[in-house]
């Protein structure tokens, strides 16, 4: 839950400009369609206003609700966005021609060979050197990799264009 009421704006002029923001116009310019989105219109509105520097308390005043309610709406919206990203990553992993499992306990230095071998077998070109590929896997794996140790099972996928994703 996002309980921080800090504003990204740094001075009073920025806050005044942010208060003049028309949320409906922001949503229209971004092409928001509530029927096609995982976000409700209220969630999208809160995220748009927060991105423009409004504090939760200012948004609450604007919407005629409490700051706690705005915080809850924002937290739900961010959770929905994260879940949508995970769904897209899953769908991309299903359709990727190359899927390589990197088991827990694997030395990260062994991961590039596994990926290159699977790509060679599938006829997919990877344009990263082994050190770059290790760095990509390590960075995208987050806490699942510590130093050179893979601490949680990873799924590395490579699409037909050679783009690498790590789940």
Automatic annotation (TrEMBL):
The keyword DNA-binding applies. Pfam families: Sigma70_r4 (PF04545), TFX_C (PF14601). GO terms for molecular function: DNA binding. Residues 84-166 form the DNA binding protein Tfx C-terminal domain. The keyword DNA-binding applies. Residues 38-80 form the RNA polymerase sigma-70 region domain. Keywords: DNA-binding. Signal peptide: none annotated. Gene3D superfamilies: DNA-binding protein Tfx superfamily, archaea. This is Tfx family DNA-binding protein.
